Amino acid sequence: MAGENGETLRELVTRLIESAKDYARAEIAVAKQTALEWVNRARTAIIAIVIAIVLLLAALTVLVAALGVALAHWIGMAGGLAVAALLAIGTAGLLGWFAATRLTGKNG
Fold this sequence. Notes:
Order of helices and strands: HH
Helix content: over 70%
Structural class: mainly alpha
Number of domains: 1
Oligomer: single chain
Number of strands: 0
Largest sheet: none
């Protein structure tokens, strides 16, 4: 059995396989380029988010220290800072517990 151009079935199948390989390579190249474009767009946003988180942590540290100094008026400097630190740790623990229950779907 021969094709229109006098090609054998084997030659037609070989050409079909090569065309499929070329198509797959082209699709992979498009996917890579799409991913690279997304990463390039997201890079600036991710840097800004990281900087914002660092600044937020610095502000929270100052806030906890200020709370400790305010409490120092009644319970001394060490006691005030310890209470402020314990409040911060307790809040972090509650937020962590809340997040874990949301992620696992368990409410207890």
